[in-house]
C-alpha cells in the first residue's frame, strides 16, 4: 500500500505537535521515525493510524483520501510502548485473534502461524498462560506477535522493544528485520535510538520538535545529514561539534589549531566542524591533526571505551574498540582525520561531508550538498 501525508500538521490550542510536513513512506518497506522524546513520532503515528485527525493536511492511502476515517475502518496493526492484550484470553488466543477475525483459515493453519510467531519472539513456552501471569516484556512480545499475525498492509510500531532487556532487544531486532524483509506490509517503526535505526535499515525520517528534517535511505541520511539538527539527532554518542572559521580550504579552531578540508576552498566564513566519536584516533596517521587534552571521563559500554576529553578546541568524546585503561586527568592526544570531517555553515546547513567509497560526493558545486531522495519530503 502507498501511504502519503500531504501538508499534515497537528495543533491543540497554541501547542503545535506537528508542523506541516509531507511524507510518503516507501511501500512495502520499513520507515523509521527517529527522534528524541517529544519529537512528534507518536503524534505522527496516531494521524497515520486514524486515531487522531490532523489539524491541517490530508492522509492518502493508495491515492484515496482517508483523512478523518476512524481506525476501526482501516486495516492497520499497531504496537505501542503501552502494550495492550486481552486479559481474559490465553497468549495463544491473543495472537490468534486477528487470524480468526480477518480470514477463514483452518484451525491447524492458525495454530501453525501462532506457534511460528511465538517461537520467533521467544514466547512459545507461554502460549497457555494469561497476560496477568507475564512480565511486562513478555506482554509486549505478545502484543507484537498479535500485530504481526494480523498481516495488515500498514503496521505501526512505536518503540515496541523499549520494555525489553538489552540482550532480548538485540535478538528481536534481528528477527523483526527478517520478518519485515519477507513481508509485504509498509512498516513504520518509531525509535529514539540511532543505533536501532541503523540496525533495522530501510528508510529513516528524522523528526525534531514536531518538524520533519530529512527522509531517505537510512545509511544515506546517516552519512549525509542535511543539517546540524539531523547530525545531532542521528548520532549516539552525539557528534562532536566545534565552532570555527573556514578560509582558504582550512578551518581555524580554538587553541590555534588548523584543519585542512579538501574541496571547500570556494566557501569562507563561520562554520561548525563535526566529527563522529568513532572517527577520532589515539595514534596519529598521515595527515591527521593532533588535538591535545586531558581525560575527563573514561566509560565502558559493551566492548567499547568512550573517552571524554577536555581539549584545546573544547570537550570531545571519542569511541575506541576494546577496554582502555585511562586515568582521570591523564594527558591524551586525539587525532582528527580531515577526510572524516563534516562542515556546516552559519545557518546549520551541511556544506561538506566525508566521501564514502563508491558513494556520493562530499559536496556539489555552489556549496549545495547531495540530498536524500525527494520522494516523501
Task: Describe this protein with a few key phrases.
single chain; 377 residues; Rossmann fold; OB fold (Dihydrolipoamide Acetyltransferase, E2P); 6-stranded mixed sheet; 6-stranded antiparallel sheet; 20 strands
Please tell me about this protein's structure:
It contains eight helices and 20 strands. It has two domains: 3-228, P-loop containing nucleotide triphosphate hydrolases (Rossmann fold, 3-Layer(aba) Sandwich); 238-352, Nucleic acid-binding proteins (OB fold (Dihydrolipoamide Acetyltransferase, E2P)), CATH 2.40.50.140. Helix 3 crosses helix 4 (136-150). Mean pLDDT is 89; it is low at 360-377. It starts with a strand and ends in a 25-residue tail after the last strand. By secondary structure, the protein is an alpha+beta fold. Keywords: ATP-binding, Cell inner membrane, Cell membrane, Membrane, Nucleotide-binding, Translocase, Transport. One of its GO terms (cellular component) is ATP-binding cassette (ABC) transporter complex, substrate-binding subunit-containing. This is ABC transporter.
Kindly estimate the percentage of residues that lie in beta strands according to DSSP.
25-35%
Number of strands: 20
Helix content: 10-25%
- SS summary, helix count: 8
Q: If you compute it from the alpha carbons, what radius of gyration comes out, rounded to the nearest whole angstrom?
A: 24 Å
Low confidence ranges = 360-377
Counted up, domains total 2
Task: Please identify the structural class as seen in this structure.
Answer: alpha+beta
CATH uppermost class of the largest domain? Alpha Beta
Largest sheet: 6 strands, mixed
Overall pLDDT level: 89
CATH homologous superfamily grouping of the largest domain: P-loop containing nucleotide triphosphate hydrolases
Overall morphology: globular
CATH architecture of the largest domain: 3-Layer(aba) Sandwich
Distance between the termini: 18 Å
Strand adjacency order, main sheet: 6-7-8-3-9-10
Helix and strand succession? EEEHEEEHHHEHEHEEHHEEEEEEEEEE
CATH fold-level topology of the largest domain: Rossmann fold
Biased composition (Low complexity): 365-377
InterPro entries: AAA+_ATPase, ABC_transporter-like_ATP-bd, ABC_transporter-like_CS, ABC_transpr_FbpC, ABC_transpr_MalK/UgpC-like, Mo/tungstate-bd_C_term_dom, NA-bd_OB-fold, P-loop_NTPase
Keywords: ATP-binding, Cell inner membrane, Cell membrane, Membrane, Nucleotide-binding, Translocase, Transport
Region (Disordered): 355-377
